[in-house]
């Protein structure tokens, strides 16, 4: 469980340290701005910054039923965060599987990528994409 939150904890910790340094140097405005940016980064990279994850089996069943793509991701992945932020409100149209939370999801990614756990990996009924552009994934959801 800690592994899933570690990137956010590190970013928040670095942010708190830097804000303290800047406040002690009298750079209050910079400290406030950077504090907000570090806090936003910690939220975006946290598991809470993504739609609720489901298991690989649930995602496959739901995708077969509704035709929506499956996104395999992991917390702390900057490419996953970029995809999530770029999709905005459309992110909820996808089925999200956290490969650190679901070993079957990690195995599915290794099957697609030839043994690596490269994320984000997007799987549709007929194709799969490793680290696809947000535009491509947006087109798949419409």
Number of helical segments? 6
Number of DSSP-assigned strands: 4
Helix coverage percent:
55-70%
- Which architecture of the largest domain per CATH? 3-Layer(aba) Sandwich
Integer-rounded radius of gyration:
17 Å
What does this molecule look like?
The structure is a single chain. 57% of the residues lie in helices and 10% in strands. The chain has six helices and four strands; from the N terminus they run H-H-H-E-H-E-H-E-E-H. The chain has helices spanning 2-24, 28-45, 56-66, 78-87, 103-113, 134-141; strands at residues 70-73, 95-98, 121-123, 128-130. Strand 1 (70-73), helix 4 and strand 2 form a beta-alpha-beta unit. Helix 1 (2-24) packs antiparallel against helix 2 (28-45) and helix 4 (78-87) crosses helix 6 (134-141). The longest helix is centred in the N-terminal third of the chain and has 23 residues, at 2-24.
Key structural traits:
Glutaredoxin; 2 domains; 142 residues; 4 strands; alpha+beta
């Amino acid at each position: 469980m800690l592994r899933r939150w570690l990137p956010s904890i590190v970013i928040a910790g670095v942010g708190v340290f830097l804000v303290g340094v800047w406040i002690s140097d009298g750079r209050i405005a910079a400290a406030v701005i950077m504090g907000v940016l570090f806090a936003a980064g910690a939220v975006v990279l946290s598991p809470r910054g993504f739609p609720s994850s489901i298991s690989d089996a649930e995602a496959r069943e739901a995708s077969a039923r509704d035709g929506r793509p499956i996104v395999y991701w992991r917390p702390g992945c900057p490419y996953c965060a970029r995809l999530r932020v770029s999709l905005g409100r459309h992110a909820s149209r996808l089925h999200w599987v956290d490969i650190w939370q679901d070993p079957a999801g990690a195995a599915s990614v290794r099957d697609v990528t030839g043994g690596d756990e490269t994320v984000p990996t997007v799987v549709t009924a007929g194709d799969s994409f490793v680290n696809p552009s947000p535009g491509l994934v947006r087109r798949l959801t419409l």
